[in-house]
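Look over this today:
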Amino acid sequence: MSSLDPALADDIETSVGRGIPRIGWNASFTGILAAFGWAGTAVLIEYWPEIIPQPYGRELAFIALVIAAVAAVVAVTGTRLGKVASTVRYYGPWLVLASAFLAGWEILTAKTGFLPVPFFASPQSILEVYFDDYDRLGISVWYSLLLLAKGYFFGAITGFLIGTTIGWSRNASYWVHPVLRLIGPLPATAWLPLAFFIFPTSGSASVFLIALATAFPVTILTWSGIASVNRDYYDIARTLGAKPSFLILKVAIPAALPHVFVGLFMGLGTSFAVLVVAEMLGVKAGLGWYLQWAQGWAAYSNMYAALFVMALMCSSLITILFRVRDWTLSWQKGLVRW
């Protein structure tokens, strides 16, 4: 997966050198096409009258012009701008598609009203939310990140410890495995009524639910990784006088790390879902709360803006986790392909 993302690879040429299929686009032509696309979108936004006047149309046109200028500079200068140029050139086809999407969105909403406003917000109205409601939206993002960090941390640690224990000890596996098979498949949101009854605050209950959603996949994948370590590694280490603690810390856990990271990725995905549900039901701040607040006031532009921020936040966290995985598993570079 990382091999298809230039943010996680050294550069396009390096990726191609590792056997990744080459993109069938001429980079300079694509850059020029993207520049014309964004410039045309800017002209459309600025000079096509809106059926309902909306603020920040000129600012949106200016942003489109900036993107057009960047694409044009990269197309002309080639690889002289280093990694920035490589990333922009890699995403050239997406830049072309994005300009067409923005133009179509603008025509269907602000210019013709084919999609009824406010149920389908125009690009200008979403930009207005970022300019005028950034403080409330920023505070919501901060609270969501705090809540997610707490729950994910406790869930990952708990899942890792349980998975290592039952993967190493048959006695522990005998007692814990049936419990995992019984409770693990239950969605974390099914515990909502009980969690809000047991825990003293809605915040602590939400942390528990996110930790629960994270812990199960981490436990299962860690267990699988520890249990599937080649037994020859242990025999060789024992021959050299290794103690049980060395076998666990220096042999079993490092060999199981690829499985552990798969569990961490799965846990991060499930924690996002539980985070939004928990914030909608019990927490008084965060992106889930912001979505519900916007729905209550029929502020559909705020809803779309919050959804876009949420998507960016999730994507950024997954990218960070990929970076951590690449750094931690650098000794397996070239072998790990997910």
